């Protein structure tokens, strides 16, 4: 049975649409229709009911879909095993990366990987840390790039670097007069939080608890699911936030934000590459880890945090 036809069938079955499946697969709609017709000829049965507004699976299609998933997964496992054994830098690599890493650590190494190995096709999905680990466990990613602790069995971690979390405020804020912040100062300010499931939020809250400060004392006025929106509203004066020092290097240089540590709170976390333990690691994934370690920017020194400028 032709694997490409199975891939097209799975895409149509999931999208319930020939048009959306064609967009996902970067094919024309007529090419998708031809692949489905050929597959129906192979199995001798109609697989999709096209008479409704949305494409629906026939009983035969529903039966085939389960087997299609297994066959494609087995084919992918075989491809990975052969590529890993031969050390080949070809084929596709699927990367799931946290927002912080995708925005501020990954671009340079990823560009270098593509430049050195043009036969590698790169696919990146950007998620919070919880969803990155899920993508790995479910087999939807070859490598995960995530922050902090991972509460999921079956994943192995390789540390890339250490990152520091800092409190950011707009330029000219009263925090500018302080080398470090007290809990009472942080509790008195309107606070912008990351969404639940964010690695940044998990690390910050855990560090505050260890230092004896309950996170629910923060006066949270908004939760945002991205670093750039948080920086923008802090720059505009809506409140303060806790973010990665890695993510505010440009704003500290341009002096649109200031960054301060909290006295007695060590808000450090590890940025790591993660792999599903039972699957062989693709050579391209191993090379990406090397590039991330080699080319990733250094952590801003504490003196840089105090001055508002990177070290």
Give an overview in words.
By secondary structure, the chain is of the alpha/beta class. The chain has three domains: 3-86, Orthogonal Bundle (Arc Repressor Mutant, subunit A); 91-160 and 270-295, 3-Layer(aba) Sandwich (D-Maltodextrin-Binding Protein, domain 2); 164-269 and 302-307, Periplasmic binding protein-like II (D-Maltodextrin-Binding Protein, domain 2, 3-Layer(aba) Sandwich), CATH 3.40.190.10. The protein has 13 helices and eleven strands. It has helices spanning 3-15, 18-25, 29-43, 59-86, 99-104, 107-116, 129-137, 183-187, 199-210, 227-235, 249-254, 283-295, 302-307, and strands spanning 48-49, 56-57, 91-98, 120-127, 143-147, 155-170, 190-194, 219-224, 240-244, 257-260, 268-276. The strands form two sheets. Strands 3, 4, 5, 6, 7, 8, 9, 10 and 11 form a nine-stranded mixed beta sheet that branches. It has a two-stranded antiparallel sheet with strand order 1-2. The protein is elongated and about 75 Å long. The N and C termini lie far apart (59 Å).
Q: What portion of residues belong to β-strands?
A: 15-25%
Secondary-structure-based class equals alpha/beta
CATH C-level class of the largest domain is Alpha Beta
Instruction: Report the radius of gyration as a whole number of Å.
Output: 24 Å
The number of helical elements comes to 13
Largest sheet data: 9 strands, mixed
Q: Helix proportion of residues, in percent?
A: 40-55%
Broad shape = elongated
Low-confidence stretches: 298-304, 307-311
Number of strands: 11
CATH topology-level name of the largest domain: D-Maltodextrin-Binding Protein, domain 2
Average the pLDDT over all residues and give the rounded result: 86
Just name the CATH architecture of the largest domain. 3-Layer(aba) Sandwich
Give the SSE string: HHHEEHEHHEHEEHEHEHEHEEHH
Name the CATH superfamily assignment of the largest domain.
Answer: Periplasmic binding protein-like II
State the separation between the terminal residues, measured CA to CA.
Answer: 59 Å
Number of domains: 3
